[in-house]
Write a structure and sequence with these properties.
alpha+beta; eight-stranded mixed β-sheet; five-stranded mixed β-sheet; 7 helices; 31% helix
Length: 266
């Protein structure tokens, strides 16, 4: 199996630079915020942070392609860095500390591009999570000061904790009734939002989570961290990995039942 240690170290360097840039503008009174065509906000910090990461990658990995939320795709080849400079921009611009920079390296294979390295860094929470293919998932302050992550062993929906971002999107896809049935069947539900539910699945503090509308940069880093922690990450149709337009993550034991609820159509 390939060794991704150098790539993981680089991802941490990128995350360090991103943390400094995002924290410098977090809660700034003069932060400039615009509305994108899809009616979602983008701040000057989103753009500056992605530019910063791209600059580092151009110097350190000039042959690799880069896909980012704010500036799209550049380059070709079997290796592709995927960046979400600020996942949780709505929280960021309102001063809520639940946001993170998501950085992933994906490689081309038989089943298309799949993540092989992922880092999720949430500096306002003083938390960071990461994983590399075949090396497990960890959380901590650095590569040398970390705790290995493991998903939970909860094996019944009635005992499970379910996390989600919001109700938006479920009704549009005809999945709202199934979603509501799932919330009633679970032991506990919470709307933590964005990257955080996936990290909680990897840590074992949440058992299942799902979102109806996502992009690749929302999922790539989350997916490998969940997978390397022993869990499962698919789209709502059950295809493994972050290649769909939505996502579902679990400890693996509950995944089929999770998808069963969310695919109830009325």
């Amino acid at each position: 199996m390939p060794d991704y240690h150098d790539d993981l170290r680089l991802a941490h360097v990128l995350a360090d630079a991103a943390d400094a840039a995002t924290m410098d503008r977090f809660k700034a009174l003069d932060l400039k915020v615009e509305t994108k065509p899809d009616m979602t906000p983008v701040s000057e910090a989103d753009k500056a942070t992605e530019e910063l990461i791209r600059g580092h990658l151009h110097r350190a990995r000039p042959r690799d392609a880069i896909l980012g939320e704010e500036y799209g795709i550049e380059g070709t080849g079997p290796r592709r860095w995927v960046i979400d400079p600020i996942d949780g921009t709505k929280n960021y611009v309102r001063g809520v500390p639940v946001w993170a920079t998501l950085i992933s390296l994906m490689e081309a294979g038989e089943n298309g591009f799949q993540p092989v390295v992922g880092v999720v860094s949430a500096p306002a929470l003083s938390r960071r999570w990461w994983a590399a293919k075949g090396a497990g998932a960890l959380s901590g302050r650095s590569l040398t000061s970390a705790t290995r992550l493991h998903v939970s062993k909860v094996d019944t929906i009635a005992d499970s904790s379910f996390a989600f971002s919001s109700l938006t999107g479920w009704e549009e896809q005809g999945r709202l009734d199934g979603f509501m049935d799932l919330t009633r069947a679970c032991w506990r539900t919470r709307g933590y939002g964005d990257f955080w539910p996936y990290m909680m699945v990897a840590e074992g503090s949440v058992d299942i989570c799902a979102e109806p509308e996502l992009s690749l940069w929302d999922m790539a880093a989350n997916a490998i961290i969940v997978q390397e922690a022993g869990g499962r990450f698919t789209d709502l149709d059950g295809a493994d990995g972050p290649g769909g337009s939505n996502g579902a993550a679990s400890n693996g034991l509950l995944h089929d039942e999770l998808l069963g609820y969310l695919n109830q159509r009325y």
